Amino acid sequence: MSKAGEVVLLDFWASPFCLRARVALEEKGVAYESREENLLGGKSDLLLSSNPIHRKVPVLLHNGLPVLESSNIVAYVDEAWPSKPLLPTNPYERAQARFWADYIDKTVFETGKGIWLSKGAEEREAAVKNLIEVVKNLEGALGDKDFFGGDAFGYVDIIAMGPASWFYAYEEIGGFKLEDHCPKFSSWMQRCLQRPSIAKTYPDPEKVHQLVVKLSEIMG
Length: 220
Fold this sequence. Notes:
It is a single chain. The protein is α+β, with helices and mostly antiparallel strands. It has helices at residues 16-28, 45-50, 70-80, 91-116, 121-142, 155-164, 167-174, 178-181, 183-193, 196-201, 205-219, and strands spanning 7-11, 33-36, 59-62, 65-68. It has a four-stranded mixed beta sheet with strand order 2-1-3-4, covered by helices on one side. Strand 1 (7-11), helix 1 (16-28) and strand 2 form a beta-alpha-beta unit. The termini are far apart.
């Protein structure tokens, strides 16, 4: 197990991307120091110097070296602490996992943003429909398996649970229940929430909802 001083996570409690990093570290049993960033009130000098291009969290500092972008951080954690691998060992299965992680990165959060930035009922309804279509595609990849990799919780589950942590906010704002449209995905979420790594790090859904409402007022 790493010493806390060797591993520092520049974090934000509600960030779906920071959640990925926290879960990966917890799954590996890595001791780390979480340093909360005040993203609404000013970013730290350490964040700005560690991630000068994007200036955003999460940033994983391992022995002082910054690792950036949440999916990349999860893959790095998997390689740096190789016991209990998160990615499959089979090359084809690894390629499939990376494909679905890329799909999630490119669709879920941005599609969800369409709900809370929508103006008017018609636009909101269209945004909800778009998110449901994206999640249905993920349901297809999940199939009848317990987790995306099969019986074992792994890389794609961590990647997907990040943006899924904002789904309650989308439901409240969009006036729908994801379970009504995507029951398999909802069941998968409930299984994931039972894992200690997620139960320990998952943000309070109602507090996330309040934050998203505030963000929609600021950005809208």
